[in-house]
Specification:
The chain has 278 residues and is an alpha/beta fold. It has eleven helices and seven strands. It folds into two domains: 170 residues, 3-Layer(aba) Sandwich (Rossmann fold); 86 residues, N-(1-d-carboxylethyl)-l-norvaline Dehydrogenase, domain 2, CATH 1.10.1040. The strands form two sheets. The chain has a five-stranded mixed β-sheet, with helices on both faces. Strands 1-2 form a two-stranded parallel ribbon. Bound molecules: acetoacetyl-coenzyme A (CAA). This is 3-hydroxybutyryl-CoA dehydrogenase.
C-alpha cells in the first residue's frame, strides 16, 4: 500500500482485517507515524464497538508493516497506490515501482479517482499488469470497489483483481472504463458541486441543503457533509480532472470551493469545512 491518508489507511485496514499481509509506505517518518495512528484509531473504534475481538485486533496490527522506504515493496504481489491525487506524484511512483518490483507477475493498481490509468501503465514498464482499483470512503464500510482496466491492461490482470476484491476482501466490484470520474464520481461530483454552487448563491443554508437530500431523498448524508467527508481538496481535484477531460461546465469547481481549499478549510480531516468538527 502506498499512502496512509484518509483512503490509504482505510484500504490497509480492509486488507489486514481480511487476513492479507500489508506493507504501508509513506513519504517520511512523520507521515508513517500519522498513518499508523489513523489505522490504530480506526481499529480502536471497531474494538470499542465490539466489532473486533482483542485477538483479531492484535493479529490485524501484526499483519501491517509501516515504513518510509519504497524499496520495501520489492517482494509484493500487489501494490495499491493511494498517494495524493496529483498526476506528477503518481507518474513518478509508477515509474519507480516498475523497477522495484521483483515478481514479474506483480500487479500495480491505483486508487486514483480521475487520473488516466493508461498513463500510469505507460511509465511503469508493465502496462498489461497495471489497472485502477477505486475504493470508497469510509473504505471499511463501503462495499463498492470500481475496477478500471485501461486500454493496455490484460484480461488476466482484470480477473486477478476481481478475485482479490471479491474473494480476498469480500467487496462488490463494478467495472468502468478508463475515463475521468469512472461511474460513481461522474454522477456524484456534479451533484456535490451543484450543492456547493447552490450554497454559494444563497439558495439555502448548508444544514437545509443537506437536510433536503437526507430527508427528501433518503441519502445517508447531505452533499455538503459528504464533501467534507471526502475532503474539499479531493472534491476539487476530481472536478478539475473531469473538467479537463470533458469540458463540461458542471464539473468545474465553483469559486467558493477554490477559496475554501486555499484557506485550508478541507472538511473533516482539517477540522473545518462546511461544518466544524470537534
Ligand atoms: N471507519 C470504519 N467504520 C465506520 C467509519 C469509519 N470511518 N464511519 C462509520 N463507520 C461504521 C460505524 O462503525 C457503524 O457501523 P455499525 O452500524 O456496524 O456499528 C456504521 O459505519 C454507521 O456509522 P455511524 O452510526 O457512526 O454513522 P452513520 O450511520 O451516520 O454512517 C457513514 C456514517 C457510513 C459515513 C454514512 O453516513 C454514509 O454511508 N455516508 C455516505 C458515504 C459515501 O457516500 N461515501 C462515498 C464517498 S465518494 C468516494 O469515496 C469516492 C471518491 O473518489 C470521492
Amino acid at each position: 500500500m502506498i499512502g496512509g491518508g484518509l483512503m490509504g489507511s482505510g484500504i490497509v485496514e480492509v486488507n489486514a482485517r481480511a487476513g492479507i499481509d500489508v506493507t504501508l509506505v509513506e513519504v517520511s517518518p512523520e507521515a508513517v507515524k500519522a498513518a499508523e495512528a489513523r489505522v490504530t484509531s480506526s481499529l480502536d473504534r471497531a474494538l470499542g464497538r465490539g466489532k473486533l475481538s482483542q485477538e483479531d485486533y492484535d493479529s490485524t496490527l501484526e499483519r501491517i508493516r509501516f515504513t518510509d522506504d519504497l524499496e520495501q515493496l520489492a517482494d509484493r504481489q500487489l501494490v495499491v497506490e493511494a498517494a495524493s491525487e496529483r498526476e506528477d506524484i503518481k507518474l513518478d511512483l509508477f515509474r519507480r515501482l516498475g523497477q522495484i518490483l521483483t515478481d514479474d507477475q506483480a500487479i500495480l493498481a491505483s486508487n486514483t479517482s480521475s487520473i488516466p490509468i493508461v498513463k500510469l501503465g505507460a511509465v511503469s514498464g508493465r502496462a498489461d499488469r497495471v489497472m485502477g482499483v477505486h475504493f470508497f470512503n469510509p473504505a471499511p464500510v463501503m462495499k463498492l470497489v470500481e475496477l478500471i482496466p485501461s486500454l493496455t491492461s490484460s484480461p488476466e490482470t482484470l480477473e486477478r483483481m476481481r478475485g482479490y476484491v471479491t474473494d480476498g476482501l469480500g467487496k462488490d466490484p463494478i467495472e468502468a472504463t478508463d475515463r475521468a470520474g469512472f461511474v460513481v464520481n461522474s454522477l456524484l461530483v456534479p451533484y456535490l458541486l451543484s450543492a456547493i454552487r447552490m450554497y454559494e448563491a444563497g439558495y439555502a443554508s448548508a444544514a437545509d441543503i443537506d437536510q433536503g437530500m437526507v430527508l427528501g431523498c433518503g441519502h445517508p448524508m447531505g452533499p455538503l457533509a459528504l464533501s467534507d467527508l471526502i475532503g474539499l481538496d479531493t472534491v476539487r481535484a476530481i472536478g478539475i480532472s473531469m473538467y479537463d477531460e470533458f469540458k463540461e461546465p458542471l464539473y468545474s469547481p465553483p469559486p467558493l470551493l477554490d477559496r475554501m481549499v486555499d484557506a485550508g478549510l478541507l472538511g473533516k480531516k482539517s477540522g473545518h469545512g462546511f461544518y466544524p468538527y470537534g
